[in-house]
Amino acid sequence: MNKNFNIDRFLDLSNYATDERVSRRKNSDINSNEFFTPYSIIKVMCDKISEEDWSDPEKTFVEPSAGNYQFVVYILWNRLMHNIDWRTALKTLYSVELMEDNVKEGKSRLLSLLSQMNLSDYNEKEAKRIINKNNVCHDFFTWDFINWREYTQAELDLMKKPKKEYNDGLTQEALF
Ligand SMILES: C[S@@+](CC[C@H](N)C(=O)[O-])C[C@H]1O[C@@H](n2cnc3c(N)ncnc32)[C@H](O)[C@@H]1O
Known about the structure:
Layout lengths: L6 H4 L7 H7 L14 H8 L4 H4 L6 E3 L6 H12 L4 H6 L1 E5 L2 H17 L7 H11 E3 L5 E2 L4 E2 L2 H8 L2 E3 L5 E3 L3
Parallel strand pairs: 1-2, 2-3
Antiparallel strand pairs: 4-5, 6-7
The chain binds S-adenosylmethionine.
The site of S-adenosylmethionine (SAM) has 18 residues, from helix 5 and strand 2.
């Protein structure tokens, strides 16, 4: 494996094509005008996760509003650097992002990283399959993170119920 891969440079946004993103969204109804987290901050935040957790193949990582996958890419790279095999690293990494162009860009960045890591036993077709299953283009408000699927309309309707009676007699606005 390529232990010398320069993740700092890979996640550098200083020359990021923001104009290109704006122009490709000209005819889109939605534009979330996002700001992506620079590498230096990603590093500080991810350093808060223990070495034990990074090295644990059972741990799962979820990015609920992934943007162009700055965190997702870093997490994948750091899992590989902690000797998690590429399949397990992908299978334990999940993300949700609203904007389709971001998701497309993010997935291609994941594949680009994997192709540059000189991984033994690497199979791009299988990697794509796992990436597509675990990294979705969706509104996180209507995504069931526990079961990794869309909420059904019946479930959403249930959540939209305006009031909920609690045992103590108090009423509280439902979440949605
Ligand atoms: C400030 S950016 C941060 C992106 C990424 N987490 C990062 O730190 O680089 C917020 C992202 O959330 C996405 N987003 C906004 N509302 C969302 C929603 N309801 N469901 C999923 N993603 C959403 C936007 O498209 C945008 O890419």
